[in-house]
User: What shape does this take?
Amino acid sequence: MDLKEKALVYHKNAPAGKIAVTSTKPCATSEELSLAYTPGVASPCMAIRENPENVWDYTVKGNFVAVVSDGTAVLGLGNIGPEAGMPVMEGKAVLFKRFADIDAVPICLGKVFNERGRSDAAKVIETVERLEPSFGGINLEDIGAPACFEIERELKKKMNIPVFHDDQHGTAIISMAAILNAMKILGKKLDECRFVVAGAGAAGISCSEFYITAGARRENFIMCDSKGVIHSGRTDLTPEKERFAVDTPCRTLAEALVGADIFLGFSVGGSVTGEMVKKMNSGAVIFAMANPVPEIYPAEALAAGAAVVGTGRSDFPNQINNVLGFPGIFRGALDTRASNINEEMKLAASFALAELASEPVPEDVKADLAAAYPADAAAGMFDRNDPLGADYVIPKPFDRRVVPRVARKVAEAAMKTGVARQMIADLDEYEKSVYRRVNCR
Assistant: This one.
């Protein structure tokens, strides 16, 4: 069978789908039944009624995330609808559980669309904000731009639990870590680099804004959408795009890349050529993140003179994969009962990933990585005292240290910025406890 046929069989085999609900407490005797439900369940109900904060102690809320989508921007498949988006949201729930031991459920919303079949922001906001009593966090997923910006912004104002649009911030956090390490290798400064961004949707805009938060300069960005360079003479721009409109003679991606230091692709496969890379600045960084076909394949980019190349694919070095971010981010946010995932917490996640890539790989982790990435292991990637290099600017998704380290740094930032409702006294022990939790199941 080819991959398509295998995937259909995988999802259809009974029981259909990829997730299920299991009980965390025994219910095999009459006494246990009376504890799980009536009459015993009345006790935690009244304890929560007396103090609503007790909901964190007596229910699943503290380890429960809703993966919410309306199916308007699913992967690279586009506006395929909420039902068709369900397998992706189930998959996200699988990753939450596999990597961070977080229980997550897919919630795909219908009847939240405008007359053009796109996201009606007001309807999505009204629906999602009513979920707050049941969940410790909201992971927004695959909601089309520009509505996704308003939806997240307003929900963060209205809700007292973390709201995180992974399509915007996940890629930003991971790629920022990779950029920081690429700058370290190349001896460049973030605030002096010229960026070219292909794709002005949720990921392209949010990544660029995040890099600016981290120290890049807005005037050093040229962004392109399907109509070419976003320049100050255009009159068809959304408010989000207008923030990146520049006064430049460049009108095409090829023209924009001349003299650029960093290319970030969130667009379509094959849109960058080796000749375009040759005209970039020396020590060029290429993160071509279109899937499944990147804007340019690594071999061609390297042959044209690029110094560091990454993609969204697992079969090439430097995979920019959101699974490096959201599990640990939500683990840290939930464990501190954070009311928000703010910029400081996101930056902390980036810094955690960046520092981890320079640390020696312990022997037990080497064994995992050798099984998951045999070619890299054979090349000695994980044997270096400082693994950081052009082929390794970001940790691997199956590195068991990732979630505990990200969770620790995110929790620390939550406490420092005043959004934590639960304090963690010993962060060293906390990181170890998360390591045991996610790796010893």
